[in-house]
Amino acid sequence: MLYFDNASTTKISKSALDTYTKSSELFYNPSALYLPAVKVSKELENARNFFLKYFNADKGSTFIFTGCATESNNSVLKSAITRKDKKYIFSAGEHSSVHNTAKYYQELGYNVVFIPLKSNGSIDISKLECELDDSVALVSCIHVSNETGAINDIKEIVRMVKSRCRNALVHADGVQAVGKIKIDLTDLGVDYYTISAHKIHGPKGIGALYIKNINKFKPFIIGGEQEKGLRAGTENIPAILSFKTALEELKIKDYTKLKETIISNLNCDYKLVSTDNCVSNIISICFKGVRAETIQHMLEGYDILIGTGSACNSKAGLNRVVSQLVPREYAQGAIRLSFEDVTIEECKQVAEELSSAVNQYIKRIK
Ligand code: PLP
Fold first, then answer.
1. Pocket lining: 176 vs ligand 1, CB cutoff 6 Å
2. Which of 47, 112, 77 is nearest to 192 (CA)?
3. What does residue 337 show for φ and ψ, rounded to 5 degrees?
4. What is the pLDDT of residues 344-366, one digit of tens each?
5. Are 20 and 238 in contact (CB under 8 A)?
6. What is the pLDDT of residue 302?
7. H or E segment at 357?
8. Do residues 219 and 75 lie in contact, with contact meaning Cβ atoms separated by under 8 Å?
9. Is residue 152 within 8 Å of 123, Cβ to Cβ?
10. Could you please report the per-residue DSSP string of 98-128?
11. Is pLDDT of 309 > 80?
12. Would you say the CB of residue 175 lies under 6 angstroms from ligand 1?
Protein backbone atom coordinates (compact mmCIF):
# COMPACT_ATOMS: atom_id res chain seq x y z
CA MET A 1 0.00 0.00 0.00
CA LEU A 2 1.37 3.44 -0.91
CA TYR A 3 0.27 5.98 1.67
CA PHE A 4 0.15 9.55 0.35
CA ASP A 5 -2.14 11.06 2.96
CA ASN A 6 0.21 11.98 5.81
CA ALA A 7 -1.37 15.42 6.25
CA SER A 8 -4.51 13.57 7.31
CA THR A 9 -2.70 11.42 9.86
CA THR A 10 0.56 9.56 10.27
CA LYS A 11 1.40 6.11 11.55
CA ILE A 12 2.58 6.12 15.14
CA SER A 13 6.35 5.48 15.25
CA LYS A 14 7.74 2.40 16.94
CA SER A 15 9.38 4.39 19.71
CA ALA A 16 6.30 6.56 20.28
CA LEU A 17 4.26 3.36 20.55
CA ASP A 18 6.84 1.85 22.94
CA THR A 19 6.67 4.94 25.13
CA TYR A 20 2.87 4.79 25.04
CA THR A 21 2.83 1.14 26.07
CA LYS A 22 5.47 1.46 28.78
CA SER A 23 4.05 4.64 30.26
CA SER A 24 0.60 3.10 30.45
CA GLU A 25 2.05 1.39 33.52
CA LEU A 26 2.33 4.88 35.05
CA PHE A 27 -1.35 4.78 35.78
CA TYR A 28 -1.33 6.87 38.97
CA ASN A 29 -3.25 10.09 38.83
CA PRO A 30 -0.68 12.91 38.56
CA SER A 31 -2.85 15.08 40.82
CA ALA A 32 -2.65 12.59 43.71
CA LEU A 33 -0.28 13.27 46.60
CA TYR A 34 1.35 9.84 47.23
CA LEU A 35 4.82 9.17 45.92
CA PRO A 36 4.08 7.05 42.78
CA ALA A 37 1.67 9.77 41.63
CA VAL A 38 4.20 12.51 42.33
CA LYS A 39 6.63 10.64 40.08
CA VAL A 40 4.03 10.66 37.31
CA SER A 41 3.47 14.35 37.87
CA LYS A 42 7.22 14.92 37.50
CA GLU A 43 7.20 13.06 34.18
CA LEU A 44 4.37 15.29 33.05
CA GLU A 45 6.25 18.47 33.98
CA ASN A 46 9.41 17.13 32.30
CA ALA A 47 7.40 16.67 29.13
CA ARG A 48 5.95 20.18 29.39
CA ASN A 49 9.42 21.63 29.87
CA PHE A 50 10.65 19.66 26.89
CA PHE A 51 7.90 21.18 24.70
CA LEU A 52 8.71 24.68 25.96
CA LYS A 53 12.39 24.23 25.17
CA TYR A 54 11.82 22.45 21.86
CA PHE A 55 9.73 25.33 20.51
CA ASN A 56 11.82 28.03 22.25
CA ALA A 57 8.79 29.30 24.13
CA ASP A 58 8.66 32.73 25.70
CA LYS A 59 9.59 33.13 29.38
CA GLY A 60 6.52 32.77 31.59
CA SER A 61 4.55 30.93 28.90
CA THR A 62 3.23 27.37 29.08
CA PHE A 63 1.90 24.47 27.06
CA ILE A 64 -1.31 22.80 28.13
CA PHE A 65 -2.11 19.31 26.89
CA THR A 66 -5.49 18.87 25.24
CA GLY A 67 -7.51 16.05 23.70
CA CYS A 68 -6.60 17.14 20.15
CA ALA A 69 -5.72 20.20 18.08
CA THR A 70 -9.42 20.77 17.48
CA GLU A 71 -9.82 21.27 21.22
CA SER A 72 -6.78 23.60 21.33
CA ASN A 73 -8.27 25.72 18.55
CA ASN A 74 -11.72 25.78 20.14
CA SER A 75 -10.14 26.75 23.46
CA VAL A 76 -8.44 29.81 21.97
CA LEU A 77 -11.62 31.06 20.32
CA LYS A 78 -13.77 30.42 23.37
CA SER A 79 -11.29 32.24 25.58
CA ALA A 80 -10.88 35.23 23.26
CA ILE A 81 -14.37 35.78 21.85
CA THR A 82 -16.26 37.47 24.65
CA ARG A 83 -17.48 40.89 23.49
CA LYS A 84 -19.79 41.96 20.70
CA ASP A 85 -18.05 45.36 20.36
CA LYS A 86 -14.74 43.68 19.43
CA LYS A 87 -13.51 42.32 16.12
CA TYR A 88 -12.27 38.76 15.58
CA ILE A 89 -10.24 38.12 12.45
CA PHE A 90 -9.56 34.81 10.68
CA SER A 91 -7.86 33.86 7.46
CA ALA A 92 -10.24 32.33 4.94
CA GLY A 93 -7.96 29.29 4.84
CA GLU A 94 -8.36 28.03 8.39
CA HIS A 95 -8.85 24.38 9.26
CA SER A 96 -12.50 23.60 9.95
CA SER A 97 -11.82 23.45 13.71
CA VAL A 98 -11.14 27.20 13.58
CA HIS A 99 -13.36 28.13 10.62
CA ASN A 100 -16.53 26.46 11.86
CA THR A 101 -16.00 27.73 15.41
CA ALA A 102 -15.58 31.26 14.03
CA LYS A 103 -18.79 30.77 12.00
CA TYR A 104 -20.56 29.62 15.15
CA TYR A 105 -19.63 32.86 16.92
CA GLN A 106 -20.58 34.88 13.83
CA GLU A 107 -24.04 33.32 13.93
CA LEU A 108 -24.30 34.34 17.59
CA GLY A 109 -23.79 37.95 16.48
CA TYR A 110 -20.08 38.51 17.11
CA ASN A 111 -18.11 40.62 14.67
CA VAL A 112 -16.17 37.94 12.81
CA VAL A 113 -14.17 38.87 9.72
CA PHE A 114 -12.60 36.44 7.25
CA ILE A 115 -9.60 37.69 5.28
CA PRO A 116 -9.38 36.30 1.73
CA LEU A 117 -6.46 34.30 0.42
CA LYS A 118 -4.12 35.33 -2.37
CA SER A 119 -3.86 33.04 -5.40
CA ASN A 120 -0.86 31.29 -3.79
CA GLY A 121 -3.04 30.18 -0.86
CA SER A 122 -1.55 32.53 1.75
CA ILE A 123 -3.58 35.16 3.59
CA ASP A 124 -3.80 38.49 1.77
CA ILE A 125 -1.76 40.59 4.19
CA SER A 126 -2.80 43.89 2.59
CA LYS A 127 -6.48 43.02 3.19
CA LEU A 128 -5.66 42.02 6.76
CA GLU A 129 -3.92 45.35 7.26
CA CYS A 130 -7.11 47.21 6.29
CA GLU A 131 -9.04 45.49 9.12
CA LEU A 132 -6.55 46.25 11.88
CA ASP A 133 -7.57 48.77 14.53
CA ASP A 134 -7.98 48.91 18.30
CA SER A 135 -11.27 47.01 18.21
CA VAL A 136 -9.47 43.81 17.17
CA ALA A 137 -9.30 41.26 20.00
CA LEU A 138 -8.06 38.19 18.12
CA VAL A 139 -6.33 37.36 14.85
CA SER A 140 -6.11 33.67 14.01
CA CYS A 141 -4.11 32.48 11.02
CA ILE A 142 -3.07 28.97 10.10
CA HIS A 143 0.71 28.60 9.88
CA VAL A 144 0.77 25.94 7.13
CA SER A 145 -2.40 25.14 5.23
CA ASN A 146 -3.60 21.56 5.65
CA GLU A 147 -5.17 21.81 2.19
CA THR A 148 -2.47 23.36 0.03
CA GLY A 149 0.65 23.47 2.20
CA ALA A 150 0.81 27.28 1.80
CA ILE A 151 2.94 28.91 4.49
CA ASN A 152 1.75 32.10 6.19
CA ASP A 153 4.27 34.61 7.47
CA ILE A 154 3.12 34.49 11.10
CA LYS A 155 6.00 36.61 12.37
CA GLU A 156 5.05 39.45 10.01
CA ILE A 157 1.35 39.07 10.90
CA VAL A 158 2.19 39.31 14.63
CA ARG A 159 4.36 42.38 14.00
CA MET A 160 1.58 44.10 12.04
CA VAL A 161 -1.18 43.21 14.49
CA LYS A 162 0.79 44.23 17.57
CA SER A 163 1.79 47.55 16.01
CA ARG A 164 -1.78 48.50 15.02
CA CYS A 165 -4.07 46.91 17.59
CA ARG A 166 -3.51 47.75 21.22
CA ASN A 167 -4.86 44.59 22.85
CA ALA A 168 -5.14 42.01 20.10
CA LEU A 169 -3.99 38.44 20.64
CA VAL A 170 -2.59 36.35 17.78
CA HIS A 171 -3.17 32.63 17.39
CA ALA A 172 -1.58 30.34 14.84
CA ASP A 173 -2.63 26.78 14.09
CA GLY A 174 0.71 25.07 13.63
CA VAL A 175 -0.51 21.50 13.23
CA GLN A 176 0.86 21.12 9.69
CA ALA A 177 3.94 23.23 10.38
CA VAL A 178 5.51 21.04 13.07
CA GLY A 179 8.32 18.98 11.56
CA LYS A 180 7.99 20.76 8.22
CA ILE A 181 9.40 24.20 9.03
CA LYS A 182 11.39 25.50 11.98
CA ILE A 183 9.19 26.85 14.76
CA ASP A 184 10.57 29.32 17.28
CA LEU A 185 7.69 30.62 19.36
CA THR A 186 9.60 33.51 20.88
CA ASP A 187 10.67 34.63 17.44
CA LEU A 188 7.15 34.24 15.99
CA GLY A 189 5.75 36.27 18.89
CA VAL A 190 2.35 34.53 18.89
CA ASP A 191 0.09 34.46 21.95
CA TYR A 192 -1.29 31.00 21.15
CA TYR A 193 0.01 28.12 19.04
CA THR A 194 -1.76 24.82 18.35
CA ILE A 195 -0.07 21.47 17.72
CA SER A 196 -1.17 17.84 17.38
CA ALA A 197 0.66 14.55 17.94
CA HIS A 198 -0.91 12.34 15.30
CA LYS A 199 0.47 14.43 12.42
CA ILE A 200 4.04 13.74 13.53
CA HIS A 201 3.96 9.99 14.20
CA GLY A 202 2.64 10.41 17.72
CA PRO A 203 -0.58 8.93 19.06
CA LYS A 204 -4.09 10.15 18.27
CA GLY A 205 -6.19 11.93 20.85
CA ILE A 206 -3.51 14.28 22.16
CA GLY A 207 -2.85 17.89 21.26
CA ALA A 208 -1.22 20.84 22.94
CA LEU A 209 -1.75 24.57 23.13
CA TYR A 210 0.99 27.12 23.71
CA ILE A 211 -0.22 29.98 25.89
CA LYS A 212 2.09 32.96 26.16
CA ASN A 213 0.28 34.70 28.99
CA ILE A 214 -1.84 32.44 31.17
CA ASN A 215 -3.51 35.42 32.81
CA LYS A 216 -5.28 36.22 29.53
CA PHE A 217 -6.56 32.68 28.99
CA LYS A 218 -9.88 31.35 30.25
CA PRO A 219 -10.22 27.56 30.22
CA PHE A 220 -12.53 25.87 27.75
CA ILE A 221 -12.90 22.67 29.77
CA ILE A 222 -13.88 23.48 33.30
CA GLY A 223 -13.66 21.12 36.24
CA GLY A 224 -10.64 20.15 38.31
CA GLU A 225 -7.42 22.08 38.70
CA GLN A 226 -5.36 20.01 36.28
CA GLU A 227 -2.94 21.83 33.96
CA LYS A 228 -2.71 24.64 36.52
CA GLY A 229 -6.42 25.23 36.20
CA LEU A 230 -6.18 25.89 32.46
CA ARG A 231 -7.67 22.59 31.24
CA ALA A 232 -9.61 20.29 33.50
CA GLY A 233 -9.54 16.53 33.17
CA THR A 234 -7.00 13.91 34.25
CA GLU A 235 -3.98 14.19 31.99
CA ASN A 236 -3.45 11.46 29.39
CA ILE A 237 0.09 10.60 30.53
CA PRO A 238 0.87 7.78 28.03
CA ALA A 239 -0.25 9.99 25.12
CA ILE A 240 1.65 13.04 26.41
CA LEU A 241 4.89 11.10 26.89
CA SER A 242 4.46 9.41 23.54
CA PHE A 243 3.89 12.85 21.91
CA LYS A 244 7.20 13.91 23.49
CA THR A 245 8.96 10.87 21.99
CA ALA A 246 7.52 11.71 18.56
CA LEU A 247 8.88 15.26 18.87
CA GLU A 248 12.29 14.05 20.00
CA GLU A 249 12.55 11.94 16.87
CA LEU A 250 11.28 14.57 14.49
CA LYS A 251 13.61 15.75 11.75
CA ILE A 252 12.76 18.52 9.32
CA LYS A 253 13.34 17.13 5.84
CA ASP A 254 13.10 18.64 2.40
CA TYR A 255 10.80 16.70 0.07
CA THR A 256 11.20 18.99 -2.94
CA LYS A 257 12.72 16.23 -5.08
CA LEU A 258 9.74 13.96 -4.43
CA LYS A 259 7.33 16.79 -5.11
CA GLU A 260 9.05 17.64 -8.41
CA THR A 261 9.08 13.98 -9.41
CA ILE A 262 5.32 13.71 -8.93
CA ILE A 263 4.59 16.89 -10.84
CA SER A 264 6.94 16.13 -13.72
CA ASN A 265 5.42 12.66 -14.15
CA LEU A 266 1.81 13.83 -14.37
CA ASN A 267 0.49 13.07 -17.80
CA CYS A 268 -2.99 14.60 -17.82
CA ASP A 269 -4.68 17.99 -17.73
CA TYR A 270 -4.19 19.46 -14.23
CA LYS A 271 -3.95 22.69 -12.29
CA LEU A 272 -1.46 22.96 -9.48
CA VAL A 273 -2.86 24.64 -6.37
CA SER A 274 0.31 24.40 -4.24
CA THR A 275 2.91 26.88 -5.44
CA ASP A 276 6.36 28.09 -4.38
CA ASN A 277 5.35 29.33 -0.93
CA CYS A 278 4.30 25.84 0.17
CA VAL A 279 5.88 23.16 2.33
CA SER A 280 7.51 20.42 0.29
CA ASN A 281 5.45 17.47 1.60
CA ILE A 282 2.03 18.59 0.32
CA ILE A 283 0.78 18.92 -3.24
CA SER A 284 -2.74 20.03 -3.96
CA ILE A 285 -3.74 19.37 -7.58
CA CYS A 286 -7.03 19.87 -9.40
CA PHE A 287 -8.44 18.15 -12.43
CA LYS A 288 -11.14 19.81 -14.51
CA GLY A 289 -14.52 18.11 -14.65
CA VAL A 290 -13.45 15.27 -12.40
CA ARG A 291 -14.82 14.26 -8.99
CA ALA A 292 -11.99 13.92 -6.49
CA GLU A 293 -13.68 11.12 -4.54
CA THR A 294 -13.95 8.97 -7.66
CA ILE A 295 -10.24 9.41 -8.36
CA GLN A 296 -9.49 8.59 -4.74
CA HIS A 297 -11.44 5.32 -5.01
CA MET A 298 -9.88 4.46 -8.39
CA LEU A 299 -6.40 4.86 -6.88
CA GLU A 300 -7.36 2.82 -3.87
CA GLY A 301 -7.97 0.03 -6.36
CA TYR A 302 -4.24 0.27 -7.17
CA ASP A 303 -3.31 0.27 -3.45
CA ILE A 304 -2.59 3.98 -3.40
CA LEU A 305 -4.17 6.11 -0.68
CA ILE A 306 -4.48 9.84 -1.34
CA GLY A 307 -6.45 12.67 0.26
CA THR A 308 -9.27 14.77 -1.11
CA GLY A 309 -9.36 17.11 1.88
CA SER A 310 -13.06 16.43 1.97
CA ALA A 311 -13.12 14.44 5.23
CA CYS A 312 -13.85 17.51 7.33
CA ASN A 313 -13.99 20.24 4.79
CA SER A 314 -16.50 19.66 2.04
CA LYS A 315 -19.72 21.37 1.21
CA ALA A 316 -21.65 20.31 -1.86
CA GLY A 317 -18.56 18.40 -3.00
CA LEU A 318 -16.43 21.54 -3.07
CA ASN A 319 -13.28 21.98 -1.06
CA ARG A 320 -13.80 25.22 0.92
CA VAL A 321 -10.17 26.34 0.75
CA VAL A 322 -9.20 25.16 -2.73
CA SER A 323 -12.41 26.56 -4.24
CA GLN A 324 -11.17 30.05 -3.31
CA LEU A 325 -8.06 29.50 -5.42
CA VAL A 326 -9.24 27.77 -8.61
CA PRO A 327 -12.41 27.87 -10.73
CA ARG A 328 -15.34 25.70 -9.57
CA GLU A 329 -14.97 23.12 -12.35
CA TYR A 330 -11.42 22.45 -11.11
CA ALA A 331 -12.17 22.66 -7.37
CA GLN A 332 -14.49 19.63 -7.58
CA GLY A 333 -11.51 17.57 -8.63
CA ALA A 334 -9.10 18.70 -5.92
CA ILE A 335 -6.88 16.02 -4.50
CA ARG A 336 -4.07 16.26 -1.97
CA LEU A 337 -0.90 14.20 -1.96
CA SER A 338 1.04 14.40 1.29
CA PHE A 339 4.10 12.23 1.70
CA GLU A 340 7.19 11.63 3.75
CA ASP A 341 9.60 8.75 3.42
CA VAL A 342 8.60 7.43 0.00
CA THR A 343 10.94 6.71 -2.90
CA ILE A 344 11.30 8.49 -6.23
CA GLU A 345 10.00 5.32 -7.89
CA GLU A 346 6.89 5.35 -5.70
CA CYS A 347 6.29 9.00 -6.56
CA LYS A 348 6.54 8.16 -10.26
CA GLN A 349 4.11 5.29 -9.79
CA VAL A 350 1.59 7.53 -8.00
CA ALA A 351 1.85 10.22 -10.70
CA GLU A 352 1.36 7.63 -13.45
CA GLU A 353 -1.60 5.88 -11.80
CA LEU A 354 -3.15 9.22 -10.95
CA SER A 355 -2.83 10.46 -14.55
CA SER A 356 -4.23 7.20 -15.85
CA ALA A 357 -7.22 7.38 -13.46
CA VAL A 358 -7.97 10.98 -14.48
CA ASN A 359 -7.64 10.20 -18.21
CA GLN A 360 -9.89 7.13 -17.87
CA TYR A 361 -12.50 9.17 -15.97
CA ILE A 362 -12.56 11.92 -18.58
CA LYS A 363 -12.81 9.38 -21.42
CA ARG A 364 -15.74 7.71 -19.65
CA ILE A 365 -17.80 10.85 -19.22
CA LYS A 366 -17.20 12.23 -22.70
N1 PLP B 1 -5.53 22.05 12.34
C2 PLP B 1 -4.98 21.58 11.22
C3 PLP B 1 -4.23 22.51 10.33
C4 PLP B 1 -5.11 20.23 10.87
O5 PLP B 1 -4.58 19.78 9.74
C6 PLP B 1 -5.85 19.39 11.72
C7 PLP B 1 -6.08 17.98 11.37
O8 PLP B 1 -6.61 17.65 10.34
C9 PLP B 1 -6.39 19.93 12.89
C10 PLP B 1 -6.21 21.26 13.18
C11 PLP B 1 -7.18 19.08 13.85
O12 PLP B 1 -6.31 18.18 14.50
P13 PLP B 1 -6.86 17.05 15.49
O14 PLP B 1 -7.17 15.88 14.64
O15 PLP B 1 -5.71 16.80 16.44
O16 PLP B 1 -8.04 17.62 16.17
1. yes
2. 77
3. -105, 125
4. 999 999 999 999 999 999 998 87
5. yes
6. 96
7. helix 344-365
8. yes
9. yes
10. HHHHHHHHHHTT-EEEEEPBPTTSSB-HHHH
11. no
12. yes
